Amino acid sequence: MSEPGRPRGAGPDWEDGSPERLYVITGGRSGSLESAPLDLVTLIVARSGPRPGLPPEHAAIMRMCQAPLSVAEISAYLSLPVSVVTVLVGDLLADGDVLARAPVARAQLPDLALIEAVIDGLQKL
Hints:
Layout: H1 19-26, E1 43-46, H2 56-64, E2 69-70, H3 71-78, H4 82-95, E3 98-101, H5 112-124
Antiparallel strand pairs: 1-2, 1-3
Helix pairs in contact: 3-4
């Protein structure tokens, strides 16, 4: 129970995973303002360090994304749901603080006939 005169959810009785905290972090939004689709494997990289005045969660994302991290990794490191992280990353994308890029696509497998020819050639050696 909170102390008298202190709002509910403020201070030490604020649970890290509580719906109230997540609501405050996202400003009550369930989606980002950025139109770019973000999925679990989208890589996020910061353009610079966090600027003064950023909310703590945004600043944490900026600090950890000096090297590319996926949305799923950011979610795990911050112990926040992916839906919350996509809202926060969307905010940073809209402000131009981070870049999002699709992960490197898998190379297409070579033609099966080529693989068989290489195997045949190796067996003849």
